[in-house]
Design brief:
12 strands; 14 helices; 2 domains; 7-stranded mixed β-sheet; alpha/beta
């Protein structure tokens, strides 16, 4: 039986009504038989039946021990960072999501937590950066927006040798394409707003731990700080996970076709897609991902923001918006949108140039999407 099918089949049918869909327990509190005696639920911030089913599903899907659902991807990141103490250090991927960069450099630096950004596509860079203060390695693979790939298994070995936690943001791949815990990671994070949600209609974050004890620590933080996912949003994610496999596979097929088309366009300078053999980390991606995913990024040879803005405002099927991973195709200019909180010098050093464009390839017909890109490229040429 397919893994996702088996996991979904294990969800119990509602014993009261026989409802096929998981019920939404839209309640803040629960009647107790006597003080402290209840049916496993006392207050929805602490636990909720709908959220618990989601948390159990994502734990199984990531081959982990404990799943936890949060109100956003950043709330999930925040809970994991709270495992650290003042004086601790994080070694992180240099091409990091702008929101995570902002959290690390403008919020947690106030509490004495420092961060080193390194090019994690070379595992040796990670080992070299580790110091006596390092307590956590932070990876995104693939990264946002340059689609860099890190060898999770190799870096996991380095983390274990140095008694350091390895956290992997698995948002771009999803658990359908990649399982970081099986490769040795300790914690997996998802912005479930993206592929797991898949319909651009919910904000959510998920955390899965390889170890039950670590899961209990994050559960304590989740309850203590309160950034939990609401019952209705939990239900939306359960609904979406039922179609996750077929959606992600189709996203990937469409993206590969579009990436191969973009390879033929001479006005494009750099094209980032791990499914292409020209990608510098193609071999690692092929080893640890089932498919290369649905995100593409590229920049123009003239490397001007003007060309990028002209393109992103000329597409029709690709809607200009932040976020990614939904059924509808989106286009984004990271320098002025998702990564605008990163200082320009730092952004350029990591490779996020002024002309970089990110495509989130949706579920529309691939040929229609290619035609949309073609007409937008033509308009860019006309404005030169």
């Amino acid at each position: 039986m397919n893994e996702l099918t088996e996991i979904l089949e294990s969800i119990p049918v509602d014993p009261l009504t026989g409802a096929v869909a998981v019920p939404i327990y839209q309640t803040s509190t629960y009647v107790q038989e006597s003080p402290g005696a209840n049916k496993g639920f006392d207050y929805t911030r602490t636990n909720n039946p709908t959220r618990k089913i989601l948390e159990d599903i994502i734990a199984k899907l990531e081959d982990g021990k404990r799943g936890l659902a949060f109100a956003s991807g950043l709330a999930a990141i925040d809970a994991v960072v709270k495992l650290l103490h003042a004086g601790d250090e994080v070694v992180a991927v240099d091409d990091i999501y702008g929101g995570a960069f902002r959290l690390f450099t403008t919020v947690y630096n106030r509490f004495g937590i420092t961060i080193k950004f390194v090019d994690t596509t070379n595992a040796a860079n990670v080992e070299k950066a580790i110091s006596g203060k390092t307590k956590m390695i932070w990876l995104e693979s693939p990264t946002n927006p340059l689609l860099k790939i890190s060898d999770i298994e190799a870096i996991a070995a380095i983390a274990k040798k140095n008694n350091v936690l390895l956290v992997v943001d698995n948002t771009f791949a999803s658990p359908i394409l990649q399982k970081p815990l099986k490769l040795g990671a300790d914690i997996v994070i998802h912005s479930a707003t993206k592929y797991i949600g898949g319909h651009t209609d919910v904000l959510a974050g998920l955390v899965v731990t390889a170890d039950e004890g670590l899961g209990e620590e994050i559960k304590y933080i989740q309850n203590a700080t309160g950034g939990v996912l609401a019952p209705f949003d939990s239900w939306l994610l359960i609904r979406s996970i039922e179609t996750l496999k077929i959606r992600v596979e189709e996203h990937s097929r469409n993206a590969l076709k579009i990436a191969r088309y973009l390879q033929t366009k001479e006005e494009i300078k750099s094209l980032n897609y791990p499914g292409l053999e020209s990608h510098p980390n193609h071999a690692i991606a092929a080893k640890q991902q089932k498919l290369p995913g649905g995100i593409i990024s590229f920049s123009f040879k003239n490397d001007t923001e003007e060309s990028a803005v002209s393109f992103v405002t000329s597409t029709k099927l690709f809607k200009l918006a932040e976020s990614l991973g939904g059924a509808k195709s989106l286009v984004c200019h990271p320098a002025s949108m998702t990564h605008k909180s990163i200082p320009r010098e730092t952004r350029l050093k990591s490779g996020v140039t002024d002309s970089l464009i990110r495509l989130s390839v949706g579920l529309e017909d691939a040929d229609d999407l290619i035609n949309d890109i073609e007409q937008a490229l033509a308009k860019v040429k006309q404005k030169k």
